[in-house]
Amino acid sequence: MSRQAGRGTEAKKVSAELFTLTYGALVAQLIKDYESDEEVNKQLDKMGYNIGVRLIEDFLARSSVGRCHDFRETADVIAKVGFKMFLGITPTVANWSPAGDEFSLIVDNNPLTEFVELPDGHQNLNYSNLLSGVLRGSLEMVQMEVDVTFLQDALKGDNTTEIRLKFIRRLEDALPAGEE
Amino acid sequence: MTSRPKQSILDKPLSKGKGDLNLSSFAFLFSEMVQYCQNRVHTVPELQQKLSDLGQHVGFRILDTLFLREKNYKREIKLLNMLLFVKTTVWKTLFGKEADKLEHANDDDKTYYIVEKDPLVNKFISVPKDKGSLNCAAFTAGIVEAVLNGCGFPAKVTAHWHRGTTYMIKFDEAVILRDKSMEGR
User: Fold this and answer.
1) Would you call B21 an interface residue with chain A, using a CB distance cutoff of 8 Å?
2) pLDDT higher than threshold 70 for residue B60
3) Is the reported ipTM for this assembly greater than 0.85?
4) Which of A68, B8, B77, B124 keeps 20 to 30 A from A12, CA to CA?
5) Which helix (H) or strand (E) holds B146?
6) Chain A: residue nearest B63 by CA?
7) Which residue on chain B is closest to A51 by alpha carbon?
8) CATH numbers and ranges of domains, chain A
9) Strand A161-170 and strand A92-94: pairing?
């Protein structure tokens, strides 16, 4: 389904190192510009949100993914199609809550963190926090309000990086004109 | 609360750098960066300086990676070789192709130009009318500046709209003198 997506609009490529280093430059700049790690996290989330809002259009245009019917399907599409398309990796979907409204994305080989070592004194920095904003922003555009948090971060010495997504509610009133 | 990583980053093998990613991902990221910088400055030159600073962060880091990986740990010491290294190796690694042209200014032995018809970083940026001179390739200029400075070739690199985009490299006088003194050896 995803493989044959976007024929003719085949995604152009760019060096992964350029991307990684550019992101690093951004984070380093934010650390200079803001007082605390928490504020840097917030700023990264905000920029991620702005990206997510635009990225979803690119995603829907290039993939042949239709509307997801439940949160489980959403999780699959994010991990197998979304992450694959934009970061070239496929995180594992795990740790479902019994109610089916929460899951984790286990990310190995996060391309954002290649070359990265967190210096001491930044234990509160979520280096890849841009991702949570991207997830939040793009899902909001398909009428899903979600909460995104980092439970584990390989950069902080955890075994892996775990991003937790929690479904909050459907944004019924936000349907764009012309839909339905 | 958390333990330090068992393996430091230096224990890991250096990546071969063959990976690539969706261009859209880079374009989204870069456009957010430009907007972030724009919100914190008042003039076009300030904005370009900020982009150049970000580029320098990238340049200093790619530099060592490349000499380790591609050049057998050997730095360039001749000016021309250094410039060719930028035009070919640096450009290929970052942008997947060589820069279009490398030229020497006729009237000034300190000035060189790298010409690029259609720089990657400008593909997705529409320059507002009131900021006609803005060139986001200032980011690339910063990368080049950091690479040259990091190798002991102090220079100032700026991006201009000329035959596409032209990066103007102005070396310190000392660089030219040193290079001349090495000739013939």
Assistant:
1) yes
2) yes
3) yes
4) A68
5) helix B138-150
6) A21
7) B28
8) 37-170 (3.30.1380.20)
9) unpaired
